[in-house]
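Summary for the lay section of the report: proteins are chains of building blocks that fold into shapes. Here we show the chain for Membrane protein and then a coded description of the shape we predicted for it.
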Amino acid sequence: MARRPLPRILSSGTTSLARGRDLARTAADSATDVLHPLLTIGRGLRVLASTGRRKWSDTPKDKRGPALFLGAACVLVVALVPYGPLCALVTVMAAAAWHGRDRTPVKTGPGEAEAERLGSLYEALVPYFSIAEDPAPLFAHGGAWDKAFGDYAFDDAGRVTRLRIRYPAYFTDGEADARARIEALLHAKSGRGREYLFVWDEEANHLDLSVLAPLPTTIAAQPFVTSPGETVLGFTDAGSVRRTLPVLAGGDEPCDVPPVVWRTGPRSTEPHLLAVGQPGAGTSSLLRSVALQALRHGGDVLVVEGGGSGEYSCLSGRRGVLAVESGPTGALATLEWAAQETERRLIATHRAREAGRPAPDDTRRPLWLLLDRPSVLAHLAAADGRPDPLAQLQVPLRHGRAAHVTVVVAEQFDHLELLHDAVWQHTRARVVLGPASIPQIGEVLGLPPHTTPTGQVPPGRGYARLGAGPVHRLQVPATPDPYDDATHPAHRQAVLDLLPERGPAPGAQAGARDAGRDRLTLAKPLQTQPPAQAQGPAAGTSEIPEVPAEAT
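The coded shape description reads as follows.
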């Protein structure tokens, strides 16, 4: 016998059904609040009735008659006294309310296992927070831990989740090494595998320890609510930034999360970005996320992939993507053109301002240079006797902010020494992804994080610092290669939905225009001709002039 399908209102999670459940739950909560006194009195009457029944069953049979007669006499006297029944009713209700109150025992202190854990933590801190000259040491072997610890909390497993430590004033809390020793000790004694936040209050001599919740990993690439010039690098803790973005998390559930927003353009103080991580840490996902956001805001993108794994093939031939290069020859041609384009934009903007005209439109169009593992291409070029492609980055890095050119470099920890000094000097926005030690993170970001990094982290998890700002925890939105079948299908589809439509064929002539957008296919080095006169190129022309050396 075939099974009949359920009604639609029961089989589909419609909005009306969900709204009805919410209304019913709200009504039940309101009714509980209103009827709470009656529920308390009813519970107390039940307690009084059970107590009376137990007293009656415990009374011997030869004494039940006199007890019943005494009770009837008391009832008769109460009935004959003026206002007796009313006073008796009030007395019974008060007794019922007293016996029906919530008598759940309130935990006033730690349990035996929790007290033992706090005691061991106190003993471990004694060598660091005590000196022999202290007449009344706050930390001493065999001392009372409750004088130094306060505002503590534990999880279900009995591990510390929140703790305030009071330390003596002579502790050198202004030295980074001394603070790092205390943080490492607390991390080891409180339980590994979690991420702790340490907040030092030097004025009050307090150290607050708290366990941070993991950042969400279910947020995929999507159209973020940002203005042109703003790029969402990822998401962080709620107390770190003053802004939230509406996003769709796993299961298309809308929520507001705090983002780490990187601002680019002529007014940016951090015009270029450096991302560092281990293999599989998520630096390629970060570059894909940046590329999709740049294309959405009408920018042009040049991608140089040193690994040669084809992780950016989904961008080839898309509108706004000028080139995707993975070889030394193509990378050198791409970066040479980018350097010349930066110089051309600077000259055109300068001449327009001298003439009292606004800058041409083609000089204000954002140009993004995305380089993934460029040290590999530098090594291949050196082995083949070719010029180093990274040397062409000096002009875009130095003058890119004024020319609307942004450079994003992603490299691994093992090859950081191959990066040029210009990259380290001009990339003041930094990101570190994947497992890394505190010295490694501090070397790249310039400051150590305020949390303890864990050994096992999901892809795209790390830290970010924009310029001279604080270090933020970061979770990059999931932006996998859409052609990689090993990744999550929903995340791959989200990337495919954000890709722009395909433009002209890759073999189009260099400098060809498509609906007013520059489309360049840099399959070989560009051959440029010097201008006939010392005048700037007209807006909309495709030829790139050769700039004299003194113009740089």
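Put simply, here is one thing we learned. DSSP finds 15 helices and 18 strands in the chain.
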